[in-house]
Amino acid sequence: MKILYAIQGTGNGHLARAREIVPLLQQMHDTDVLISGTQADIDVPFPVKYRLNGLSFLFGKKGGVDIFETYRKSSLRRFFKEVDALSLDGYDLVLNDFEPVSAWACFLKDRPCIALSHQAAVVSEKSPRPKKKDLIGMLVLKKYAPAAAEYGFHFQAYDQDIFTPVIRREVRECRVENKGHYTVYLPAYDDERIVRILKEHKDVQWEVFSKHSSGTIRKANILIRPIHNDDFIKSMAASEGVLCGAGFETPAEALFLNKKLMVTPMKAQYEQQCNAAALKQMGVPVIKNLKSRRQDAIKDWLRSDRRVTVSYPDNTAAILARVLTEQTVSSDKPV
């Protein structure tokens, strides 16, 4: 069977998951890889047949998406040219991790697209939601990369087609210890804002991984480092705790490593609001934003030793086998 595996390239979570999924798919079947989008800081150790612009949301510096830069660098005309130009001939199955070009190509050319993503789990009615509804946010999650069938990953298996997170091999096999520092990853905030909040906790050593810094800088008890995959994993594995956005992969990895965790969801990003609701339900502290009024909550978290225990077994191969079997049977194509 010939598979096209399409990956969203905005942010690091999709590519982190792909590092585990793609080699397994390639062992099972002939698999090509498509990546669209920008803003990822993780390399992939496998050939990529298609690299496209797609549609990307760009991180800002005040806790949310930079709407102006996103609009300025987006081109719907270019996007639909990519959709039209993408040939799906020869592929028996398209597996899609929230990637819009291949999803819309399948939709417009009447080909089945199978979602295998975190977003597919977020839109499930069985998954936790914040109290405040966001109809536009939910519409974006459902229509950004439309699919004929959906399988998802979430912090817990909320339904039969929702699985626990894919944890990278580097994280599963890393040496876990506690050197006392706290690892920070808040890509939607600039370094100045992060430092202004963290410097108030003078007895804490912070290691901040920044999208906005090209070199290592120390400011009192705060070490600011450029994002590097191996360095980030080592820092997280040796930390006392992790302060990060309410994305999916980093919180999941912190939970897997049994680290103290606090998250703050990006503004106007409904997926992260849903993630924050799920984490809060599990007992993870959530702060609305990175402002001075949140200092007491941060201080309480630093003083606490409460950790949320999870079980994230390495069952990625079994998940892929199930998805491929169900989808090939439903389309009457032999595996």
Structure overview:
With 335 residues, the chain is α/β, with parallel strands linked by helices. The protein has two domains: 2-168 and 313-330, Rossmann fold (3-Layer(aba) Sandwich), CATH 3.40.50; 175-303, Glycogen Phosphorylase B (Rossmann fold). 36% of the residues lie in helices and 18% in strands. The protein contains 13 helices and 13 strands. The chain has helices at 13-28, 67-73, 76-85, 100-108, 118-122, 135-143, 169-172, 191-198, 229-237, 249-256, 270-282, 295-303, 316-330, and strands at residues 2-8, 30-36, 50-52, 93-97, 113-117, 149-153, 162-163, 182-185, 206-210, 217-219, 222-226, 241-245, 260-264. A seven-stranded parallel beta sheet has the order 3-2-1-4-5-6-7, sandwiched between helices. It has a six-stranded mixed beta sheet with strand order 10-11-9-8-12-13, sandwiched between helices. Helix 10 (249-256) links the parallel strand 12 (241-245) and strand 13 (260-264). Helix 1 crosses helix 13 (316-330). The longest helix is centred in the first third of the chain and has 16 residues, at 13-28. It is globular, with a radius of gyration of 20 Å. The chain starts with a strand and ends in a 5-residue tail after the last helix. The model is unreliable at 64-68 (pLDDT under 50).
